Hints:
heterodimer, A: 343 residues, mainly alpha, 12 helices, 2 strands, globular, B: 122 residues, 0% strand
Amino acid sequence: MTIWEIIITSVIKIAIALTSLLLSVAYMVYFERKISAWAQNRLGPNRVGYRGLLQPFADVFKLLFKEDIVPDAANKTLHTMAPFISLFVAFATYAVVPIGPEVNLFGYQIKLVVADVNIGILYVLALTSLGVYGITLAGWSSGSKYSLLGGIRSSAQMISYEVSIGFSIGGVLLMAGSLRPIDIVNAQYGGMWNAILQPIGFITFVVSAFAETNRLPFDLPEAEPELVGGYHTEYSSFKFAGFFLAEYANMIIASLLIVTLYLGGWQIPYVDKLGLSEGLTVVLQIASFLLKTAFMLFVFIWVRWSIPRFRYDQLMNLGWKVMFPLALLNIVWVAMLIMIFKL
Amino acid sequence: MLLDYLPIFLVLAFSVIVSLAIVFSSRLFGPYRPNKIKNLSYESGKDPVGSTHERISVKYYLVAMLFIIFDIEVIYVYPWAVEFRNMFHSNGLFAFMPMFIFLIVLELGYLYILMKGGLKWD
């Protein structure tokens, strides 16, 4: 492909990916409220549109027309930069996640991933590390005690669990022998999902992903009863919406990564043995990818309404004394698997 | 090969534009009538007391330092993990032992931190 063809196809892919990300964030909020309502025997949003389906848009427009208050005690530049960093990270990370195999569209071989680079996983790690800055700066620059406590707690929590995430991904790289997400998915061909081969790594990754996205049971940075709103106490209007959006987008990206790294990506075991036409297979594979992601998102909400919040020392102990050694053990385990069974 | 990275830069440019648009759109559409009381920091309805930028518990610095140490180890593991299968085919157990020893040394350092109480939160 020429350089212009690459630019045009990437812009189309980015537009589709960004729109679907924003829409899925909106409906993620809706489903979270609906599912939490079911969990607590309530009705949930049901006024705006059919069964409350337009509720997310009502929320967005309400926030858009609110006054943007920046407290006098805040550092104005950093206060504006913090939501920008959080949003930037949330919008840039999905780029390397493949949602399906190569397809033939209008005579072009198109990969169903925005950027197919051989450092994909490193790119994800680099950007998610950057995400810590958004939250820390938001907490520090607001000039409020609640924000500061929330921001500091959050940064300590996120960097602690980032170590376990890094070591868990090491096991996946051992199996795949590549940092390219497409190769990682292809290495899980035929039901050899990483979640089955390395259950310890899967568990450490999922738990750390919950901690990285600041979700319950690890939502200490914004533990409502003690810290008001945590790091975004002093944010209002669309800057608050930005943090909210980034949080949910991070959750979606975490689910995409869990599916890509551990649940076989778009792979359905033995689907190619059924003798279906190529087009139907691709559609089924993309559907399976989206279904797995939706299931992981449901797990995120499910856990939120099932497990109570950790205390801060328990959280740090879990991260450093349980998850970190387990993730190291997982690397040795996967290396043993490769050496003994010649996988 | 280098063209593979072009979409990445496009993604970065797009996300900068969209996030800037989101951050600044509240000023565009919302009202803007600041006053002194409204711009006070939130402190449960009271006037704010004292400064916010006071000293922070040293535990957080310790965690940050440990993070730097262990996160660098992660980066050392990755190239080995990517090449492990090939190395195992050509070198056998010699591909595994050096990293195993490296991980044991890492684990010894970790145990030392544990014994010194570096990860204790009271």
